[in-house]
Amino acid sequence: MRAMQLDAPRQPLQFRDLPIPVPAPGQVLIRTRACGVCRTDLHVVDGDLTQGKLPIIPGHEIVGEVVELGPGTTGLASGQRVGVPWLGYTCGQCRYCRAGHENLCDRARFTGYHLDGGYAEYVVADARYCFPLPEAYSDAQAAPLLCAGLIGYRALSMAGDARRLGIYGFGAAAHIVSQVARYQGREVYAFTRPGDSQAQAFARELGAVWAGDSASPAPEVLDAAIIFAPIGALIPAALQVVDKGGRVVCAGIHMTDIPSFPYAILWGERSVVSVANLTRHDGEAFLALAPRVPVRTEVEALPLTQANEALAKLRGGQVRGALALVP
Ligand SMILES: [Zn+2]
Ligand SMILES: [Zn+2]
Question: Given a cut of 90, is residue 215 above it in pLDDT?
């Protein structure tokens, strides 16, 4: 099969012809139809995340068709379209798993990081972590639902019942989350990198009541903020725009260091919280909700062989909505 593989951090992915993987008991073999390109892939490729396996095939927003079941695998059928998310395995036995927090599992394994992912024509996945996908979405349109959507939705849930919601970084996750937030009756205030008038216009098209530079003051005091951009300096910035009792939710897996800041901007029972991974329950809840909103994803599809170009576009902030690779 054709695959794009990372040998070492900060190297370009290599185009390879690899054997088609064989599904183990409990797994399925999936023919990839589209795989989203997520900022977490960039953190893997750029060496910000260092606990994964190498070489690795990145990609954890996989849409594909089940073509073979491993021995004893149940729950999925050959020919079925499924999505494979970031959460690829949990132990089911640690105290987090037993408490319903499998996103925090001590022995979790993640797709495209510990387990080969979707930048390839085929992938194997544990059937228990695959999701059936809503029919309303094409393969490429469904891809960003699987991480930008799922983890964005978890971040939105952690913002509680905040009515005036700030969103920092208007990429794939924000373009989905802002639609859900509006559906829930919230007002979205979109903060982009300074001068990014295209992202600000995109945010307004998707219903943001205000869009502006992350360095500029918000027009209103906000009830909560979600930070999707991987920039630690946005945490004190967001704390300064949320009201007493407000929450700042950090949705990314990696951020640059947080600069020191005066305690006064945290005081007033403001809080800062991170979002880690997803549970299968998050996935089921979001994939049921998305077609009801309905969430419309804007996806630029590129051929699998252009994975390096796709990552460069994402790194440079040149993406409107989301990117997906199509084998
Ligand atoms: Zn566990
Ligand atoms: Zn992701």
Answer: no
How big is the CA angle at 65 (ends 62 and 67), to the nearest 5 degrees? 125
Q: Which residue, among 116, 119, 113, has the nearest Cα to 49 in the 3D structure? A: 113
Which ligand has an atom closest to residue 254 CA? 2
245 CA distance to ligand 1 centroid (A)?
Answer: 32
Q: Which helix (H) or strand (E) holds 225?
A: strand 222-227
Distance 90 CA to ligand 1 centre (A): 5
Ligand nearest to the CA of 151: 2
Position 97 pLDDT exceeds 90? yes
Ligand 1 center from residue 102 Cα (angstroms):
6
Give pLDDT tens digits for 127-148: 999 999 999 999 999 999 999 9
Query: Phi/psi of residue 16, each to 5°?
Result: -130, 155
Query: 103 CA distance to ligand 1 centroid (A)?
Result: 8
Name the H helices within 113-233. Answer: 139-142, 148-158, 172-183, 197-205
By DSSP bridging, strand 27-37 and strand 81-84 are unpaired
